[in-house]
Amino acid sequence: MNITVWNEYHPKHQSGKTAKVYPNGLHNAIKDIFKDNPEINVRCATQEEPENGLPDKVLDETDVLIWWGHNWHENVLDSVVDRVCQRVLKGMGIIFLHSSHESKPFKKLMGTTCSLKWREDGGGERLWTINPSHPIAYGVPETFTLEQEEMYGEFFDVPTPDEIVFLGWFEGGEVFRSGITYRRGYGKIFYFQPGHETYPIFYDKTIQKIIYNAAMWASPSAPPRPTLGSTYTPKHERRKLFKWK
Ligand code: ZN
To answer: Which domains, ranges and CATH numbers included, belong to the chain?
Structure first.
Protein backbone atom coordinates (compact mmCIF):
# COMPACT_ATOMS: atom_id res chain seq x y z
CA MET A 1 0.00 0.00 0.00
CA ASN A 2 1.29 3.44 -0.96
CA ILE A 3 0.41 6.60 0.89
CA THR A 4 1.37 10.14 -0.14
CA VAL A 5 1.25 12.85 2.52
CA TRP A 6 0.83 16.26 0.95
CA ASN A 7 1.57 19.45 2.89
CA GLU A 8 1.62 22.98 1.53
CA TYR A 9 4.79 23.51 3.63
CA HIS A 10 5.09 27.14 2.63
CA PRO A 11 8.51 28.70 3.44
CA LYS A 12 6.75 30.78 6.14
CA HIS A 13 5.78 27.54 7.90
CA GLN A 14 9.36 26.32 7.86
CA SER A 15 10.25 28.70 10.68
CA GLY A 16 8.27 30.33 13.47
CA LYS A 17 5.47 28.81 15.58
CA THR A 18 4.69 25.84 13.32
CA ALA A 19 8.34 24.80 13.06
CA LYS A 20 8.60 24.80 16.88
CA VAL A 21 5.91 22.10 17.02
CA TYR A 22 6.89 20.31 13.80
CA PRO A 23 10.60 20.96 13.13
CA ASN A 24 10.57 18.73 10.02
CA GLY A 25 7.15 19.83 8.80
CA LEU A 26 3.87 18.30 9.91
CA HIS A 27 3.92 16.00 6.85
CA ASN A 28 6.81 14.10 8.42
CA ALA A 29 4.88 13.77 11.71
CA ILE A 30 1.95 12.31 9.74
CA LYS A 31 4.31 10.06 7.78
CA ASP A 32 5.61 8.63 11.09
CA ILE A 33 2.13 7.39 11.99
CA PHE A 34 2.68 4.53 9.53
CA LYS A 35 6.31 3.74 10.33
CA ASP A 36 5.61 0.51 12.24
CA ASN A 37 3.87 -1.17 9.30
CA PRO A 38 6.50 -2.41 6.80
CA GLU A 39 3.77 -3.06 4.23
CA ILE A 40 2.99 0.61 3.90
CA ASN A 41 5.20 2.90 1.82
CA VAL A 42 4.80 6.55 2.65
CA ARG A 43 6.19 9.44 0.68
CA CYS A 44 5.73 13.17 1.21
CA ALA A 45 4.96 15.84 -1.37
CA THR A 46 4.90 19.59 -0.89
CA GLN A 47 3.40 22.52 -2.73
CA GLU A 48 6.68 24.18 -3.71
CA GLU A 49 7.82 21.16 -5.71
CA PRO A 50 7.22 21.07 -9.50
CA GLU A 51 3.53 20.32 -10.24
CA ASN A 52 2.92 20.88 -6.52
CA GLY A 53 4.69 17.57 -5.85
CA LEU A 54 1.88 15.58 -7.47
CA PRO A 55 2.85 14.70 -11.06
CA ASP A 56 1.16 11.68 -12.65
CA LYS A 57 4.10 9.51 -11.68
CA VAL A 58 3.48 10.16 -7.96
CA LEU A 59 -0.29 9.70 -8.22
CA ASP A 60 0.24 6.46 -10.19
CA GLU A 61 1.90 5.15 -7.05
CA THR A 62 -0.63 6.53 -4.55
CA ASP A 63 -3.45 4.48 -3.06
CA VAL A 64 -4.33 7.06 -0.44
CA LEU A 65 -3.49 10.76 -0.50
CA ILE A 66 -3.48 12.68 2.80
CA TRP A 67 -3.87 16.45 2.34
CA TRP A 68 -2.99 19.28 4.72
CA GLY A 69 -3.18 22.89 3.51
CA HIS A 70 -4.08 26.19 5.12
CA ASN A 71 -3.06 29.59 3.81
CA TRP A 72 -1.88 28.90 0.30
CA HIS A 73 -4.71 26.88 -1.25
CA GLU A 74 -4.69 29.22 -4.24
CA ASN A 75 -1.10 28.22 -5.07
CA VAL A 76 -2.24 24.74 -6.05
CA LEU A 77 -2.45 24.51 -9.84
CA ASP A 78 -5.91 23.85 -11.26
CA SER A 79 -4.39 21.15 -13.45
CA VAL A 80 -3.19 19.37 -10.29
CA VAL A 81 -6.61 19.75 -8.66
CA ASP A 82 -8.28 18.21 -11.73
CA ARG A 83 -5.80 15.36 -11.71
CA VAL A 84 -6.34 14.62 -8.00
CA CYS A 85 -10.14 14.70 -8.33
CA GLN A 86 -10.04 12.43 -11.39
CA ARG A 87 -7.93 9.96 -9.42
CA VAL A 88 -10.45 9.99 -6.59
CA LEU A 89 -13.27 9.21 -9.03
CA LYS A 90 -11.19 6.29 -10.27
CA GLY A 91 -10.67 4.90 -6.76
CA MET A 92 -7.81 6.70 -4.99
CA GLY A 93 -8.66 7.31 -1.33
CA ILE A 94 -8.21 10.81 0.06
CA ILE A 95 -8.09 12.22 3.59
CA PHE A 96 -8.48 15.95 4.11
CA LEU A 97 -7.14 17.24 7.41
CA HIS A 98 -8.20 20.34 9.32
CA SER A 99 -7.93 23.55 7.23
CA SER A 100 -7.95 21.48 4.04
CA HIS A 101 -11.71 22.01 4.19
CA GLU A 102 -10.95 25.05 2.04
CA SER A 103 -8.53 23.30 -0.31
CA LYS A 104 -9.37 23.33 -3.99
CA PRO A 105 -9.75 19.55 -4.36
CA PHE A 106 -12.06 19.25 -1.32
CA LYS A 107 -14.28 22.08 -2.55
CA LYS A 108 -14.36 20.60 -6.04
CA LEU A 109 -15.32 17.16 -4.72
CA MET A 110 -18.00 18.63 -2.43
CA GLY A 111 -19.44 21.27 -4.77
CA THR A 112 -20.22 23.65 -1.87
CA THR A 113 -18.34 26.51 -0.17
CA CYS A 114 -17.10 24.21 2.65
CA SER A 115 -16.94 27.29 4.89
CA LEU A 116 -17.37 27.10 8.66
CA LYS A 117 -17.07 29.09 11.88
CA TRP A 118 -13.61 29.30 13.52
CA ARG A 119 -11.73 30.77 16.47
CA GLU A 120 -8.14 30.27 17.55
CA ASP A 121 -7.95 31.07 21.26
CA GLY A 122 -6.06 28.14 22.76
CA GLY A 123 -9.25 26.49 24.05
CA GLY A 124 -9.76 22.75 24.14
CA GLU A 125 -11.93 20.26 22.29
CA ARG A 126 -13.78 17.12 23.36
CA LEU A 127 -14.43 14.62 20.59
CA TRP A 128 -17.10 11.94 20.66
CA THR A 129 -17.11 8.73 18.63
CA ILE A 130 -20.70 8.54 17.46
CA ASN A 131 -20.32 5.67 14.97
CA PRO A 132 -18.51 3.05 17.08
CA SER A 133 -18.81 0.22 14.55
CA HIS A 134 -17.19 2.26 11.77
CA PRO A 135 -13.74 0.96 10.70
CA ILE A 136 -12.23 4.43 11.25
CA ALA A 137 -13.34 4.27 14.90
CA TYR A 138 -11.66 0.90 15.56
CA GLY A 139 -9.89 1.06 18.93
CA VAL A 140 -10.82 4.71 19.46
CA PRO A 141 -12.36 5.59 22.84
CA GLU A 142 -15.93 6.81 23.11
CA THR A 143 -14.67 10.26 24.00
CA PHE A 144 -11.27 11.95 24.19
CA THR A 145 -9.94 15.47 24.57
CA LEU A 146 -7.39 17.73 22.94
CA GLU A 147 -6.00 20.27 25.36
CA GLN A 148 -5.76 22.92 22.68
CA GLU A 149 -7.32 23.00 19.25
CA GLU A 150 -8.66 25.68 16.97
CA MET A 151 -12.45 25.84 17.24
CA TYR A 152 -14.29 24.81 14.10
CA GLY A 153 -18.06 25.22 14.48
CA GLU A 154 -21.25 24.53 12.60
CA PHE A 155 -22.62 25.40 10.25
CA PHE A 156 -20.17 23.51 8.07
CA ASP A 157 -21.31 24.03 4.49
CA VAL A 158 -20.74 20.57 3.05
CA PRO A 159 -23.18 18.13 1.47
CA THR A 160 -24.85 15.78 3.94
CA PRO A 161 -22.10 13.25 4.74
CA ASP A 162 -22.51 9.54 4.00
CA GLU A 163 -21.43 8.90 7.59
CA ILE A 164 -20.54 10.98 10.63
CA VAL A 165 -17.94 9.16 12.71
CA PHE A 166 -16.85 11.86 15.18
CA LEU A 167 -18.43 14.95 16.68
CA GLY A 168 -16.39 17.78 18.19
CA TRP A 169 -17.47 19.94 21.12
CA PHE A 170 -15.62 23.11 22.05
CA GLU A 171 -15.24 25.25 25.15
CA GLY A 172 -17.39 27.96 23.62
CA GLY A 173 -20.25 25.45 23.32
CA GLU A 174 -19.89 25.08 19.55
CA VAL A 175 -20.28 21.67 17.94
CA PHE A 176 -18.85 20.31 14.71
CA ARG A 177 -19.09 17.23 12.49
CA SER A 178 -15.40 16.46 13.01
CA GLY A 179 -15.02 13.17 11.15
CA ILE A 180 -17.16 12.61 8.07
CA THR A 181 -17.07 10.32 5.06
CA TYR A 182 -18.11 10.56 1.42
CA ARG A 183 -17.88 8.45 -1.66
CA ARG A 184 -17.27 10.02 -5.04
CA GLY A 185 -17.06 7.66 -8.03
CA TYR A 186 -14.99 4.71 -6.83
CA GLY A 187 -13.07 6.81 -4.30
CA LYS A 188 -13.52 7.15 -0.57
CA ILE A 189 -13.11 10.50 1.19
CA PHE A 190 -12.59 11.22 4.89
CA TYR A 191 -12.56 14.74 6.28
CA PHE A 192 -11.07 15.08 9.79
CA GLN A 193 -11.17 18.38 11.66
CA PRO A 194 -8.30 18.24 14.24
CA GLY A 195 -4.83 19.35 13.13
CA HIS A 196 -4.13 23.05 13.66
CA GLU A 197 -0.46 23.59 12.86
CA THR A 198 0.65 25.32 16.07
CA TYR A 199 -0.65 22.58 18.39
CA PRO A 200 0.95 19.10 18.67
CA ILE A 201 -2.20 17.35 17.41
CA PHE A 202 -0.45 14.90 15.09
CA TYR A 203 1.62 13.48 17.97
CA ASP A 204 -1.56 12.52 19.86
CA LYS A 205 -1.93 8.73 19.94
CA THR A 206 -5.70 8.75 19.41
CA ILE A 207 -5.44 11.17 16.49
CA GLN A 208 -2.72 8.96 15.02
CA LYS A 209 -4.93 5.90 15.35
CA ILE A 210 -7.80 7.64 13.57
CA ILE A 211 -5.59 8.78 10.68
CA TYR A 212 -4.12 5.27 10.41
CA ASN A 213 -7.59 3.68 10.41
CA ALA A 214 -8.83 6.23 7.88
CA ALA A 215 -6.00 5.40 5.48
CA MET A 216 -6.87 1.68 5.74
CA TRP A 217 -10.56 2.42 5.19
CA ALA A 218 -9.92 4.73 2.22
CA SER A 219 -7.52 2.40 0.40
CA PRO A 220 -8.97 1.31 -2.92
CA SER A 221 -10.97 -1.87 -2.96
CA ALA A 222 -11.31 -3.88 -6.16
CA PRO A 223 -15.03 -3.91 -6.82
CA PRO A 224 -16.44 -5.17 -10.09
CA ARG A 225 -16.34 -2.14 -12.36
CA PRO A 226 -19.69 -1.79 -14.09
CA THR A 227 -19.88 -1.08 -17.79
CA LEU A 228 -21.28 2.38 -18.30
CA GLY A 229 -22.79 4.00 -21.36
CA SER A 230 -24.43 2.29 -24.31
CA THR A 231 -25.50 -1.29 -23.59
CA TYR A 232 -26.47 -2.35 -27.09
CA THR A 233 -24.89 -5.79 -26.89
CA PRO A 234 -26.11 -8.11 -29.63
CA LYS A 235 -29.08 -10.26 -28.64
CA HIS A 236 -27.12 -13.53 -28.74
CA GLU A 237 -24.51 -12.00 -26.39
CA ARG A 238 -27.18 -10.84 -23.95
CA ARG A 239 -28.67 -14.31 -23.94
CA LYS A 240 -25.32 -15.82 -23.06
CA LEU A 241 -25.10 -13.41 -20.14
CA PHE A 242 -28.29 -14.82 -18.65
CA LYS A 243 -27.58 -18.38 -19.80
CA TRP A 244 -30.83 -18.32 -21.77
CA LYS A 245 -31.47 -21.04 -24.28
ZN1 ZN B 1 -6.01 25.86 11.90
So the answer is: 2-115+178-222 (3.40.50.880)
